[in-house]
User: Fold these one by one.
Assistant:
Number 1:
Amino acid sequence: MAIDPALPLQGALIEAIKSFGTAAGDNVFDTVPASNPYPRVTVGMGQSIPDRADCRNATESFVQIDAWSRAVGYPEVKRIADDIRDIIDTGDLTIDGHTLELLEIELSDYSRDPDGLTSRARLQVRVLTSPAN
């Protein structure tokens, strides 16, 4: 069994966001396809840090989730970010081979891309897991 939850965590987040039904619909990716759809959500960048304190075999992970929109202003991208916050706040995420101990948003950041057209919401998610027995 893999100790690093990075891959199953990414899959669980993508599935949860798709099934929740944000304005991005099924446009949830780790790599954006050539069709370049908007609005969309990307799940990808992150890190995994082993947590061996108190003889634990846990992992603290950080995952970046980005929402992108070409709608005028920030309303659409902020609504998508709110939906993602709702998903995270429920804590109802199944990560294959791992037990979820903590799931929280650490940061929400909103910006406009240099193209002047694209709004972005960046969410930093903190996750603590341990291998399932």
Number 2:
Amino acid sequence: MSALRIAVTGLAAAFPLGGVFWDYIQYLLGLHRLGHDVLYIEDTGKWCYDPISMTYTASGANNAAYLAAQIAKLDPGLRERWFYRDSAGQSYGAGWARVVDFCRSADLFVMISGSCFMREEYFAASRIIFIDSDPVYTQGSFLAALKDSGRNNDPADHEVRARAEMIARTDRFFTFGENIGSPGCLMPKAGLEWIPTRQPIVLDCFQPAIVAQAARRRVLTTVASWEPAEKAPVIEGVTYAGKSAEFERFINLPSISSIPLEVAISGPAPRERLSAAGWRLADGHSVSADPWSYRVYLAHSFGELSVAKNAYVRSRSGWFSGRSACYMALGVPVIVQDTGFAPGSIPAGEGLLTFSNLEEARLAIDALVSAPARHARAAGEIAREYFASDRVLGSLLDQATATSSGPNRPRRDPAG
């Protein structure tokens, strides 16, 4: 494929924590490594998070400085390839004129997670693609907007509707819900044709941080928020919940685990109850203070043990965590709740183990403890084979730029 001009959106500045940074910037870096002309655009229209005061603020000056420093550290070639506009309208990095010019001549505009406030200047790109990293929530909000049709005066609902109308102008739709359309998957298509994809991992960002097995802490870890900020989606009368609903099912897992379990948690959570149940607790903000602290925490883990959002599990979406993919890129095996992804997509059994109930989780832990080196090698192999950015993004671009009879639009007009 010849070099393309590609704009990539994200939340790496507005929510400056390690895991979020890797989620979005690996698209930018991965496309850059493939030889494409890239520009990172962050324009959410919302206040940004200040991790020091743990509150939101209108000014993004500190967040922009953070973004500039991290991008330059990651790849000096990206030093001038970013733009950030805060909620007060102040912009940083590349000038607005450059952004407008870039989008006019862009072959592709990559809107990830609906994070970008889509100004008309962005729609000047030849093709717009949307990447849904939060399956069920995304489709649920789109269906809710279609149902509302402007009748509800709640500002939050108007925001959902505006986001749905923005998504409706997209040319291609991708989702981390890899099972969508498959038998047994309850994810609705919401009138759109979805193409499965997954988180790209730029492997050489993680290989230098790999820690020898003997130097790792003998504890299974994960990084999590107890409950998502998004409103619980209701689809066909079914209310889908967040991570806390699934965590409750496994809250007593430490009592039957052969190795300690630790969660670096942020946001409101029943910390005393988790501690009483045997969970070790770490501070999620400290662990994720920057991309490198986050990487160190993951790398020094014996493995990951994580549940998923109820929406991902109950819908059999096939979603797989970008965080878990980062663990595996570090040669750290993962034990994760089954969302339906294993058959025919990402192989489970070695390096990646799954569970659906307490007994399966206990057995998976015992299997990892009995052969840690074998599972560590397998984890690295899975990362290379199924998450390497050149493979994931190469496939994404092939499908995003494929010719068709017309843009991939919803069958119904959100305006009613």
Number 3:
Amino acid sequence: MKIMKFAAIDIGSNAIRLLFMNVFEEGGNTHFKKSSLIRVPIRLGTDTFIDKYISPIKGEKLIKSMKAFRHLMEVHEVVNYRACATSAMREAANGPEIIKRIEDESDIKIDIIDGKEEASIIFDNKIADTLEPDKDYLYVDVGGGSTEITLFSKGICTFSASFNVGTIKILKDCVPKGEFIRIKECLLDICPNCENIEIIGSGGNINRLVKLATPRKEKYISYKELKSIFYDLKQYSHEELMINYNMNPDRADVIIPAATIFLSVMEWAKAETIHVPKIGVSDGIVHQLYKEYKSNRLLIS
């Protein structure tokens, strides 16, 4: 059995991540098994969403991290990698300059992707294959600077959009005026004909919120449970959340903004449940890399 290793770098608004994934084929099936995940909470969004500029300090941290990521990828002997940057880098005036420095100093090429491509990458996780064919689902990915919403109706992707609302933007009070109304109007428009719609949630925050719900084998949370947890969390300060709920500092300050977004989406879509498979941009990147690898292999043969 041949085991291949791919790497995905996700440069987000709250943190940057390096995912290593083992991929192997057996019995006509392809298996994806997570090897390791490195997360560095640089939080580029606190610079970009206020000043539209990445500060020299955070720029240097990002460059040092990318150099480290390059060394790790060499040690892991990856078949291929892709590095993507989302809303924080998209909105930074000096984003292209920092990306050039990273390529020059670490030999890592970074693609700045828009919300539509971000949703497309997430779709490549083969989400549709796991859905019940007669149900409607909203895929909701909440990041630091944007929220991606995709509608799957009867197993087919029928709508996808990116909204300029994220946890750090709420935290720093820099969500564009009317953006929440835009989400509401959009959901009221696309969801009326959907019966018993359910949500597939993505992102570190919703995974953490599910863990705070009643422990169970299946990863899901109801609207009632999420609302109860939301009001419980709101009683505590940032420091108290870190101590009482064993949260890292960069999780404790964005968990409530994340719950706010998910609750709003659930209310406007009239959804009672969020399912939370552990998937995201990094997983989608690996699926794309493997698809390209297999296509090239077929062409060569």
Number 4:
Amino acid sequence: MSAIHTVAVLGAGTMGHGIAQICAMAGCDVRLFDVNEKASSSGTERVRANLDKGMARGKVTEEERDSALARISIATVIADAVHGVDLVIEAAPELVELKAKIFAEVDGAAPDHAILASNTSSLSIGEIAGAVSDASRFVGMHFFNPVHIMKLVEVVWGPETSDETRDAAVAFALRLGKQPIVVRDAPGFASSRLGIVLGMEAIRMVEQRVASPEDIDKAMELGYRHPMGPLRLTDLVGLDIRLGIAEYLHATLQSDAFEPPALLRSMVAEGRLGKKSGRGFYDWTE
């Protein structure tokens, strides 16, 4: 499998722009695509803002910032984004039908040597890989938000993922400065399966008035050394995103531990989605 020099990132939202940033920082030429052209432009601006913050903290030089930004280009058509690339990373919303549709289009346009990776946090890699002609080059690469800060990458090998593809994904994650773990293709993988159980139980505790969100989070931060409590994390990820993952895991694993609490459903219905809407379990407008 050839070295990775050029990367296509499909989806310029919360995860996509961060993935584009770290790939560019690692010296790759990056093509950033989103079905919404405005989102692509917004994605590059968010990369610039992240790098500017890095400069302010002395972690990124002006030269590094400018070089990274120069390596990111916007593609308006998937075929243009993936033409001639070595790696495709999809960062679309957590809908298996959408991801499969994207990869069906990628399959006919990307070169045969390119690794195809999904950033899904819980969906079946094998099911998504069914959309491509050669599933041996398909792998999961689950990054964490914020991508430019969080160290973990879950490399998920599907039923047909080759050892060569898996090893190349691990090597690339290391090149990005991440710490990869290798996980079999099972619902929720390792991180989402554990994280969603904790998150759903924390929400049930709020629902039952066991304690305030602040105190529940503090219990995990101070008592178990979690860098962030499960409710604040839910706000950052997005309550709608967590609801979708919980519903998927509840349906596939048939475990009540993943059943979304009524409080979560009502908050999503009210538009209280966390940081992105200004309010979730915390007030983010202050």
